[in-house]
Specification:
The complex is a heterodimer of chains A (252) and B (266).
Chain A: E1 8-12, H1 17-28, E2 32-37, H2 40-50, E3 54-58, H3 64-78, E4 83-86, H4 101-128, E5 132-137, H5 150-172, E6 177-184, H6 193-197, H7 205-212, H8 221-232, E7 243-246
Helix pairs in contact in A: 1-8, 3-4, 4-5
Chain B: E1 9-13, H1 18-29, E2 33-38, E3 52-55, H2 61-74, E4 80-83, H3 99-125, E5 136-141, H4 154-176, E6 181-188, H5 197-203, H6 205-214, H7 224-235, E7 246-249
Parallel strand pairs in B: 1-2, 1-4, 2-3, 4-5, 5-6, 6-7
The chains are: A alpha/beta (252), B alpha/beta (266).
Chain lengths: 252, 266
């Protein structure tokens, strides 16, 4: 039996990377995937590839009305909302000395405000659908700091704490909505593509990042998607407010 | 005055009350010259508390620039930065928190600590030459909400999670640059300060304090001075190998399993 039969899942950042790979899995497992992304061309192309079980909606995660429209479009198209993946995010390298206030704010708006708004707008629709599961993409840098990814790490730390807050609130309110965070290591997605080209310590960027991981390689988007699928499905019904690490041993 | 912090200059944001005021008092008692930077005036503004009061708004970059210029001009150096200013932002949950509330809380609790850490490094690097070697220490006040999360205020919880990770990145960066500047986060549990005023107004100070106290395994809330001691330890050379760490002073709230349903006021 498919693991997400007739479940409706809204995915921010659903047009590429971890979001896109999760959308493929959702559809393969019998669910409906609503790809919400700023990249309309990529989103429409993936929706067309996935067929009638998929739908594209434009989304700017930093704008509350944009989230309202995306959730409304999801319910209108597929009649319910059972799952939310907050995968939209921006990876930026900066340090405490060279990061400007504007840049700090921008990274936090996309990664942390964007995730908060997704949770906020999804909860009422999930309540009306009998419950659901929210999966927020944090990072290994939501668990550990990084000298050269200061703002990103702070924003992912916020996502980690926010996730627990949402989980505890929904538990207290008896909403039957779970919320967990996923902490990927370096995954071979468009987000880290620029870094793979930059040489570090006489190594290619790819080699450097691969060697950081005890498994000796980058993660594949489908490996993170498999963890997200577990969290979206009824296989994880007692997991809420928790941290799910998928990092090739990086934080071990 | 002599003491282990003799000759050191410290800025304490939110220093007019609560943990900030207690920290200012202890830092001054240890011999530091303390600048109390606060948006609201406290006892220090009238000159009867420790340190020099400077009106300061942590969300304003211009205010930070002015503060740093003023301190470098008048005190001539900066050794210790305590990023303590913070707001709870009320009790909004994930459903009721508005974007406006979110942004206001992030501005004070997260952006404010970001700016405080950034300008602390700038100020500490401008200390010297010809002066004693820098042994800088940045102390950022997070919360147990930055560790375990809570069903409490959503924007506050997220911001304290950001401060926890920000502090580690700052510590790693300063270590990598060999700046001799440490950075740590402090995670208080329930502290008897004005942040609980809404609860005090509802049930009275003594009753509210006793109620919150029973939620701590240690059986009581902490006094601001107990957090001031943690700040003093991190500010001093006694913690010279401690950086990127989380100092928890929470009466064991995060040590074990918690009866969260009891956290709501009576």
């Amino acid at each position: 039996m498919p693991r997400l039969e007739n479940r409706v899942v809204l995915l921010s950042g659903g047009a590429s990377g971890i979001g896109a790979e999760t959308a493929r899995l959702v559809v393969r497992e019998g669910g409906k995937a609503v790809l919400a992304d700023r990249d309309e061309a990529k989103g429409l192309a993936l929706a067309a590839e996935l067929g009638t079980a998929a739908h594209f909606v434009p989304l700017d995660v930093t704008q509350e009305p944009s989230w309202q429209a995306a959730v409304a479009a999801t319910v209108e198209k597929f009649g319910a909302l059972h799952g939310l993946l907050n995968a939209a995010g921006v990876g930026v390298r900066n340090t405490i000395e060279d990061c400007t206030l504007e840049e700090y704010r921008r990274v936090n708006d996309i990664n942390s405000l964007g995730t908060f708004l997704g949770c906020k707008l999804a909860i009422p629709a999930m309540k009306a659908s009998g419950g659901g599961s929210i999966v927020n993409i944090s990072s290994v840098l939501g668990l550990r700091g990084a000298a050269h990814a200061m703002a990103y790490s702070a924003s992912k730390g916020a996502v980690r704490s926010l996730t627990k807050n949402v989980a505890l609130h929904c538990a207290q309110m008896k909403y039957n909505i779970r919320c967990n965070s996923v902490h990927p290591g370096y995954i071979d997605t468009p987000m880290i593509a620029p870094r793979l080209e930059q040489n570090v310590e006489n190594m290619s960027g790819r080699q450097f990042l691969e060697e950081l991981h005890p498994l000796g390689r980058l993660g594949r988007p489908e490996e993170v998607a498999n963890m997200i699928l577990f969290l979206l499905s009824d296989e994880s019904t007692f997991s809420t407010g928790s941290e799910f690490v998928c990092d090739g041993g990086l934080t071990a | 005055m002599s003491g282990e912090l003799s000759g050191r200059v410290a800025i304490v944001t939110g220093g007019a009350s609560g943990i900030g005021a207690a920290s200012a008092t202890l830092l001054a008692a240890a011999g530091a010259t303390v600048i109390v930077a606060d948006i609201q005036e406290g006892p220090n503004a009238k000159g009867d508390g420790p340190g020099r009061f400077v009106a300061h708004d942590v969300v304003s970059e211009d205010s930070w620039k002015a503060l740093l210029a003023d301190v470098l001009k008048r005190e001539g150096r900066l050794d210790i930065m305590v990023n303590n200013a913070g707001i709870s932002g009320g009790s909004g949950n994930p459903e009721t928190t508005t974007v406006e509330n979110w942004q206001k809380v992030q501005a004070v609790d997260s952006d404010g600590v970001f700016l405080g850490s950034k300008y602390a490094i700038e100020g500490m690097k401008k200390t010297g030459p010809g002066k004693s070697a820098i042994k800088g220490s940045i102390v950022n006040i997070s919360s147990i909400a930055g560790l375990i999360g809570s069903a409490g205020p959503t924007a506050y919880t997220a911001a304290k999670g950001a401060v926890r990770l920000l502090s580690k990145s700052v510590a790693l960066y300063c270590a990598e640059q060999r700046y001799d500047i440490r950075c740590n986060s402090v995670h208080p549990g329930g502290v008897d300060t004005a942040i609980f005023n809404p609860l005090w107004q509802m049930v009275g100070h003594a009753q509210g304090k006793a109620f919150i106290g029973t939620r701590h395994p240690i059986g009581r809330m902490s006094e601001a001075s107990e957090l001031g001691e943690a700040v003093l330890f991190l500010a001093s050379d006694r913690s010279s190998f401690v950086t990127g760490a989380e100092i928890v002073a929470d009466g064991a709230i995060t040590a074990g399993l918690m009866r969260r349903s009891l956290l709501a006021p009576p």
